[in-house]
Amino acid sequence: MTGYGRGAGAHGETRATVEVRAVNHRFLDLKVRGASGELEDEIATRVRGAVGRGAVTVSVNLVRGGTIAGLRIDHDAAARVHQALGELAARLQLPGPDLALVLAQPGVMTSAEPGDDGSAAAAVLAALEPALVQLDTMRSAEGRALAADLAGRLDELTATRTGLAVLAASVPPQLARRLMDRVKRLSDEAGVDPARLAQEVALLADRADITEELVRLASHLDQARALITGDGAVGRRLDFLVQEIGRELNTIGAKSTSAEITTTIVGAKATLEKVREQVQNVE
Q1: Sign of CA dihedral 185, 189, 194, 200
Q2: Most buried residue, 23, 62, 143, 272, by CB count within 10 Å?
Q3: Taking a C-beta distance cutoff of 8 angstroms, is the pair 120, 77 a contact?
Q4: Could you report how far apart the first and last alpha carbons of the chain are, in Å?
Q5: In angstroms, rounded to a whole number, what is the distance separating the alpha carbons of residues 121 and 126?
Q6: What are 227-247's pLDDT values in tens digits?
Q7: What is the average pLDDT value for the chain, to the nearest integer?
Q8: Is the pTM of the predicted complex or chain greater than 0.90?
């Protein structure tokens, strides 16, 4: 599921902005940028508590007293560099060094971890909370739309299941007629032993029986409908049910001796594939 959230927080002279982006992914793939160490771990813990599935990127930006966090100026080193460059410039009869040249020298600008003090962590975590709330709001709206779409497709599959049950009831008489036609074509005898014919029809009908598959299919559809109307993370359970629904449809198709049933199964598989695609977006 996709979503975006942005939050701002402050603690003392430290200000933080946090952006959280989420796109569809089968599992939770979390990346934290702009934070490390214990702060990164705390951010990851809170995100995992709010998001169960998706590719999530958290971007942290810190500013301390007007200076971008993550960089620290060594004033003593800057003074030494400025003096050395100034002496060199005077010897070469060139203008003195500017600030950019001094800052570019090794040792003048040093890195500082954004989460190396309590004020940074407090500001970041304060910004993370509203960002996650915004993210959840967007994902919830998408979830409601997905639930409506999935409900409609499950209704289609339920109607298909009902139609398959009706078609299955007509299979034994069809088998009887086919077998009778074959016997008449292969035999010159005027009559056919009714008992033997009934035995053969019963054997063929048993092989083509899809009652058990229809019962399981109905159960899987009911469970899927209950999941999309419930609360909590349901994506992986829906994944499993979609696989099982597909398994039952494949078995029915393999057993089918009826062109109508085969055609119906092809249509049901097309609908199920649309369900499968949407379920990949569900947390």
Answers
A1: negative
A2: 62
A3: no
A4: 7
A5: 8
A6: 988 777 788 899 999 999 999
A7: 83
A8: no
Contact 59, 33 (CB under 8 A): yes
For residue 100, what are its two tokens? 């950019």
Spatial neighbors of 268 by CB under 8 A, at least 6 apart, are 157, 160, 249
On whether the CB atoms of residues 160 and 75 are closer than 8 A, the answer is no
CA 202 to chain centre: 47
- In whole angstroms, what is the distance from residue 97 CA to residue 94 CA? 9
Note the helical H segments in 187-258. Answer: 194-208, 211-228, 235-255
Complete domains list, the chain, with CATH: 3-68+112-138 (3.30.230.10), 71-111 (no CATH), 140-279 (1.20.140)
In this structure, what token pair is assigned to residue 112?
């500082």
Task: Give the closest residue to 209 by CA, choosing from 154, 162, 258.
Answer: 258
pLDDT tens digits, residue range 189-209?
A: 545 566 666 666 566 656 667
DSSP secondary structure string for all residues of 8-36: EEEETTEEEEEEEEEE--SSEEEEEES--
Q: At what angle do helices 118-169 and 211-228 cross, to 10 degrees?
A: 150
Count Cα neighbours of 36 within 13 Å in the Cβ-side half-sphere: 7
